[in-house]
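During the reporting period the student researcher (J.K.) took over the structure-prediction task from the postdoctoral fellow and processed the backlog of single-chain submissions. One of the processed entries is reproduced below for the supervisory committee.
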Amino acid sequence: MSSAGVPEGGQRQGAGGAPGAFFKEKPVKVGDELEVTISEISRRGDGVTRVQGYVIFIPGGKQGQQARIRVTTIRPNFAIAEIVGAAQT
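J.K. obtained the following structure tokens:
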């Protein structure tokens, strides 16, 4: 490890210990609207979907529900979205 606290190889450890996870480009941005299928329910009861492996929590979402969501919050390892309507079929 260098004197600056950066491991040899020059990569800082991001959130969760994954190199660069904290600063990695997220596949969604605040305000994005997406059509998704809620794949599971979190321990807290929120709906969960994934976009390119990135987790999005959807309060009030039900497993199997197809919905149009709007991203409201971005965090290093997950996002939070709200349901804005039913998915177009």
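The committee noted the following: The longest strand covers residues 66-74.
J.K. will present the remaining backlog at the next meeting.
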